[in-house]
Amino acid sequence: MTDDHHVYVLSCADGSLYTGYTTDVERRVAEHDAGEGAKYTRGRTPVELVHVESFESKSAAMSREYEIKQLSRARKERLVGLE
């Protein structure tokens, strides 16, 4: 089994952080940058990939995505090394 499920964090042009799930990080970041990703990132390009975690199952990745989204901004910044 390979780690095909990824949780990623983007730093947006407005300084905000966006967390998402994908099976192809490069493609997904390119989609966000092209304004074709999540509605949240459309007006906040360019985006920069600042953190990725990989998992063997979609459920594990989705659980971690939820955990990260519940963190305070300060905890997210610590996680991605932006503090």
Tell me the Rg in angstroms: 12 Å
Contiguous helical run count: 4
- Tell me the helix content: 40-55%
Order of helices and strands: EEHHEHH
> How much of the polypeptide forms β-strand, as a percent range?
25-35%
Give the strand order of the largest sheet, numbering strands 1, 2, ... along the chain.
2-1-3
In CATH, the homologous superfamily goes by the name GIY-YIG endonuclease
Name the average pLDDT. 95
Characterise the protein shown here:
The termini are far apart. The protein has helices at residues 25-33, 39-42, 58-70, 73-80, and strands spanning 5-11, 17-22, 48-55. The longest helix is centred in the C-terminal third of the chain and has 13 residues, at 58-70. The protein has one domain: GIY-YIG endonuclease, CATH 3.40.1440. A hairpin with a 5-residue loop joins strand 1 and strand 2 (17-22). It contains 4 helices and 3 strands. The protein has a 3-stranded antiparallel beta sheet, with helices on both faces. With 83 residues, it is of the alpha+beta class. 41% of the residues lie in helices and 25% in strands.
